[in-house]
Amino acid sequence: MTDFDIALDDPTSVEVSQVLQAHLDFAREWSLPENVKVLGKSALKAEGVRFFTARSEGRLLAIGALCPFEEDQAEIKSMHTLEAARGQGVGWSMLERLVSTAYEQGCRRVSLETGTGKGFAPARRLYERGGFKICPPFGEYRHCPDSVCMTRRF
Known about the structure:
Elements: E1 5-8, H1 14-30, H2 41-44, E2 50-56, E3 59-68, E4 73-81, H3 90-104, E5 109-115, H4 121-129, E6 133-135, E7 147-153
Parallel strand pairs: 4-5
Antiparallel strand pairs: 1-2, 2-3, 3-4, 5-7, 6-7
């Protein structure tokens, strides 16, 4: 599947809420409870946050958000591709949209945090392919065994 659209969307819609719950469930399955840093609907609707969905023929496939972080930096949050849509390029397209949006907004760096467990391996490979490098923890993140921070500079 390569025919999908990525656009700004409402993180409070019922359909999106179901994907956010799947994202939270996945994080809880693969992370220590204290390291689950999933944003809720209200945080994803906050000023400055750009929330996107990927859809094919109206069907929701993936979500992703870009949150402002410091003056010229942004953080990728809530990036999740539904299991049925994985391996089809949806995650790559979402990552490209988030990175290009950060660049267009004048960011000099975009960062993210993801898990180190087996379940997060495909995500880490995707981010590495997208030019992200491991970096020290930033913001609220701290060193821990099941979390890694990554960044990409422009």
